Amino acid sequence: MQLTVLVDNNTFIDRYFLGEPGLSFHIATNEKNILFDAGYSDAFIRNASRIGIDLLKLDSLVLSHSHMDHSWGLAPLFQLFSEAIIEGLGSPKPEFIAHPDVFCSRTADGLPEIGSFLTEATINNFCSVQLSKDPLWITDDIVFLGEIPRKNDFENLDPMGKVRTSEGIDDCFVKEDSAMAYRTGEGLVIITGCSHAGICNIIAHAREVCGEERILDVIGGFHLLDPKPEQVQGTLDYFSKLNAQRIFACHCTDLASKIKLSSVANLCEAGVGLRLDY
Asked: Looking at the 3D structure of the chain, how many domains does it have?
């Protein structure tokens, strides 16, 4: 498997890519090309072009959750698909994988919408939609983790705005938030979006789903942005015992949290252009 960071808040020095407050990874195996999240804009498309990744060859499109910094790039992606059809370059129709709540409307901080602009019906025009709360295996070794059980008492402590469901408007704890895991001979690679479900909850669930305790890498957002002290301490305690070979905390992880994580784990630099081979 090869994982390439197409969008992150940071870019590598002397690598001329676009960064934005968002996240998008391209994952390539012998079986499938997978896009994990689509960032906020068309930045991931422009970066993919510079790196030489053809997004018209996508087999799967996985959305960790619907927040704007992960889903709003879908519109320019589908524009790219449409232009490809017009120019006779093919008619891509990847599978779209996400939690069933991914299309619920969400508001926060006075913004009328922070979730997906696109409806299930619209996405179904461009993709074959698969929504699942249960783990869903994309290949023999890559799994979409579905709804993450929230078992510890230090993560996901506060709601993030409001969510509108068929039952009405309620506090939003981003129950849709999910992640992926990849099985290697050396342990699991955990791939996260924002980790609203809690990075430790996600890792624990991935271990259970995959039947593997060893952790090779963890890459993605850790949702440690001005976190509460109990969340910081709980996370540090968890990672001090995890024995992950490497962690790549990016996107929604602030500098203070990265510095603290580096004291208990092998924290490596992440940014647009990072390419990891397994």
From this structure: 1
Write out the two tokens for 174: 């981003």
Q: Yes or no: say if 266 and 6 are a contact pair by the CB < 8 Å rule.
A: no
Mutual orientation of helices 199-210 and 229-242 as an angle, nearest 10°?
Answer: 30
Q: Which domain holds residue 75?
A: 2-277
User: At 157, is the pLDDT very low, low, confident or very high (cuts 50, 70, 90)?
Assistant: confident
Q: What is the CATH number of the domain that holds 116?
A: 3.60.15.10
The pTM (predicted TM-score) of the whole model is 0.97
DSSP class per residue in 149-206: P---SSSS-S--SEEEETTEEEE---TT--EEEEEETTEEEEEESS-TT-HHHHHHHH
What distance in Å separates the CA atoms of residue 141 and residue 124, rounded to the nearest whole number?
A: 26
Task: Fill in the DSSP letter of residue 87.
Answer: T
Q: pLDDT (tens digit, 9 = 90+) per residue, 58-88?
A: 999 999 999 999 999 999 999 999 999 999 9
